[in-house]
Amino acid sequence: MKQIIFIAGLFNFLALSLSAQQEDVTSLDQAAKAYTRQGDYSNAIVVLTRALKLSPNNLEVLKDLAFTYYLQKNYSSALETAKPLPDRSDADVESYQILGLVYKALEDRKECEKMYKQGLKKFPNSGVLYNEYGEMLWTKQDYEAIRLWEKGIQVDPNYSSNYYNAARYYFFTYDKIWSLIYGEIFVNMESYSKRTPEIKSILIEGYKKLFSDISKSKKIKEPKDPFALAVLSVMNDQSDAVAMGITPETVAILRNRFEVEWFNKFAAKYPFRLFEYYRQLIKEGMFEAYNQWIFGPVHDPASFKTWTASHAEEYNRFIDFQKGRIFKLPAGQYYHQSVTE
Fold first, then answer.
1. Does the pTM of the predicted model rise above 0.85?
2. Which of 69, 80, 124, 286 qualifies as a cystine partner to 74, CB 3.0-4.6 A?
3. Could you tell me if 306 and 223 lie in one domain?
């Protein structure tokens, strides 16, 4: 009986010791993160090195150490720490991300591409890896990048960066419809990031280019996929709304009419969250404020300021509504097959 009690006590002691050790590792990792946020990479590395002595195979600590070396621009140590991570059975998407950052810093394109392919075999639905693989290719103007961003949108529709890159890419092609669609999805996902003003500018300029082409030739180059063709046909039908130019006010009229025709003709065939959001905002009396929020600041900041001052209640109601929701796309609403097939 005494032996049983002794063994039980030993197990309890070991369990408590392990728990205390894990708590120490967690505390050290958190302290290191705080140093990293302050830009004190040397102290972060000191603390993470201590944590690794307590838990040598801790994936989180190893990732943080590799990333801190990367931020410190100590790329040789970053590579030494990060390179084994993707081969671990518990490797996650971040393990590939961090190694990808190091390879990019070292300009080792060959190993970087090999690593991303390995990562996508393990995580085939990772929008993050598709996006970063595409960005790596685009540094060399490799047009295969758009296929990766599109695939990322298809398999992971609520990861915003693929929309950001695809919108920028299509803005400089004839395919303005997809630039407009992807750009607007992006600004709804990242409503207040540093990248948002850039995409808002692309949206207003994209509408100008689209309707400039329509007015010049009456028929622009048609997209290959039927969804974009349907969007373009409805836009074309309502083009008289912007006959006096593209402004937040005229675009709001255009898109209000677009919503009516779209739901009469195509909504059943092509359910699409962005256009359903139009209908929701129109019903709630916030669609004009929404259009001002997108186009006003980049079209004419002074006029936008005047509009918000004279429509303060309406605009604030929209902003409160917007900040209280997360814009998400359901699976199965990907229609740009011509690129990924």
1. yes
2. 69
3. yes
Q: CB–CB of 136/112 below 8 Å?
A: yes
pLDDT digits over 180-228, tens only? 999 999 999 999 999 999 999 999 999 999 998 776 555 556 777 899 9
| Contact present, 52 and 65 (Cβ < 8 Å) | yes
Q: What is the CA radius of gyration of the chain?
A: 26
Residue entry with tokens 């097939």: 341
The single-letter code of the amino acid at 295 is F
Using DSSP's 3-state secondary structure scheme, residue 332 falls into: coil
d(C-alpha 102, C-alpha 70), whole Å:
6
Give CA separation, 190 vs 176, 206, 273, in Å.
Answer: 21, 19, 16
Dist CA 291 CA 277 (whole Å): 12
Q: Where are the alpha helices (DSSP H) in the chain?
A: 2-37, 41-54, 59-71, 75-82, 93-105, 109-122, 127-138, 145-155, 160-171, 176-189, 196-217, 226-237, 248-265, 273-283, 287-299, 301-310, 312-323, 337-340
pLDDT digits (tens, 9 = 90+) for 223-232: 778 999 999 9
111 and 173 fall within a common domain: no
* Residue ending a domain, choose from 63, 85, 115: 115
Q: Quote the CA–CA distance of 219 and 154 in Å, as a whole number.
A: 29
What span, in angstroms and rounded, lies between the C-alpha atoms of 71 and 119?
A: 22
- Please count the other Cβ atoms lying within 10 Å of the Cβ belonging to residue 219: 10
> Dmax over Cα atoms in the chain, in whole Å?
96
**Rounded CA gap, 86 and 89, in Å?**
8
Do 176 and 189 contact (CB within 8 A), yes or no?
A: no
**Within a domain: 8:** no
Rounded CA separation 149/129 (Å): 10
